[in-house]
From TrEMBL:
Pfam families to which the protein is assigned, alphabetical: MMR_HSR1, YqeH-like_C
CDD domains: YqeH
Taxonomy, superkingdom: Bacteria
Record SUPFAM superfamilies: P-loop containing nucleoside triphosphate hydrolases
Residue ranges of domain CP-type G in the record: 60-223
Entry's transmembrane regions: none
Stated name of the protein: Ribosome biogenesis GTPase YqeH
NCBIfam families: GTPase_YqeH
GO MF, any single term: GTP binding
Length: 369
């Protein structure tokens, strides 16, 4: 057992005894200066998924010490999946430390979006969810956008203390830190990144001066996101990697939209109106009559018409559960399916049923765009 070394990619303690447990490395790699575990090696070089045995208690234990520190907490959310990537009850971990809210993956949103409006929207939604951040920043870690402003904000609010980067799985924390390190000339350390949830397994400490460090914390798993239920092959299709192209459908009542075979949106009643769908560009959307929807799903789930998921993968998902939403005239709302995207409806009023896998969060919020 190696007690004093941690994986440079995910932070987990390294060990040579059990290939099935986190942190395994072969004996031949022990003496290397920068060591990454077998799991990180496979993610980095082969884009493989490797399941690990960490539960909610493990994550809570890792994060529990932040409240006893004097630090700046940088909370990262995925703008595409703002609600699904939101960490509820963060105050239990951070105590009185200030929180800087960062919206990552700005590159995924339509180019016409107004950044100032987006910041105000995030600030309002954060307040509704019980959080009053000291500031709200936007960035794209993948493209390097907004990093100068983010660094200025971190310097302004950190008060010469440590920095903790926190967020749900797959919000891009490690990508953000890697981009910052490259941007400012620190190339020795590169954290393991991938589209697969739960890449970082333990706290990773990165010195920023003689007395203080930046800590990359493990992503907390929000189990109500659909990304934790799908096959890796389908995860690649539902997770957007390029700018979303909104798809507009002019619907009459008693029509249905299928988002692949992942979810279904029934326009039950209301005047003819646009339903604007914001999902991965690789997601196939199919329109049909509501009266035919049940039969279509039974017959074609997993086929080209209703995919992803592909083939028999749809049988691995929990059964679809219906939620009903009523949107009043004059409102413009987003119906959000956690981890999958959202549909903007309004402003003439509508009654809408949404069918999503049981356990996946489906909510109504003020329109983002």
């Amino acid at each position: 057992m190696i007690e004093t070394k941690s994986c440079a990619g995910c932070g987990v303690t390294l060990q040579t005894e059990n290939q099935r447990l986190p942190g395994f490395i072969p004996n031949s790699a022990i003496d290397k200066e920068q060591v990454i575990c077998q799991r990180c090696f496979r993610i980095k070089h082969y884009n493989e998924v490797a399941q690990v045995s960490m539960d909610d208690d493990d994550f809570v234990q890792i994060l529990n010490g932040i409240a006893s520190t004097d630090s700046l907490v940088v909370k990262v959310v995925d703008i595409f999946d703002f609600n699904g990537s939101w960490l509820s009850g963060l105050h239990r971990f951070v105590g009185n430390n200030p929180i800087l809210l960062v919206g990552n993956k700005l590159d995924l949103l339509p180019q016409a979006i107004n950044p100032n409006r987006l910041v105000n929207w995030m600030r309002y939604e954060a307040k509704q969810l019980g959080l009053k951040p000291v500031d709200v920043m936007l960035c794209s870690a993948k493209q390097g956008r907004g990093l100068d402003q983010l660094v200025e904000a971190i310097v302004r609010y950190r008060r010469q203390e440590d920095i903790y980067i926190v967020g749900a799985t797959n919000v891009g924390k490690s990508t953000l830190i890697n981009t910052l390190l490259r941007h400012y000339g620190e190339n020795e350390l590169e954290l393991t990144t991938s589209r697969f949830p739960g890449t970082t397994l333990d706290m990773i400490e990165i010195p920023i001066d003689e007395r203080h460090s930046l800590f990359d914390t493990p992503g907390i798993i929000n189990k109500d996101q659909i990304v934790h239920m799908v096959d890796p092959e389908d995860l690649k299709l539902i997770s957007p990697e390029t700018r979303i192209n909104p798809k507009v459908f002019q619907l009459n009542d008693q029509q249905t939209l299928f988002l692949g075979g992942m979810a279904r949106v029934d326009f039950v009643s209301g005047k003819r109106q646009p339903f604007v769908v914001y999902v991965s560009n690789r997601m196939h959307i199919h329109r049909t009559k509501l009266e035919k929807a049940d039969e279509l799903f039974e017959t074609h789930a997993g086929s080209k018409i209703l995919s992803p998921p592909h083939g028999e993968n749809h049988k691995k998902l929990p059964p679809l559960q219906r939620r009903t939403f009523r949107i009043r005239p004059g409102e413009k709302k987003d119906i959000v399916i956690s981890g999958l995207g959202w549909i903007t409806v309004g402003e003439v009023g509508a009654s809408v049923d949404v069918h999503a896998p049981r356990g996946v969060s489906v909510i109504l919020r003020n329109a983002l765009i």
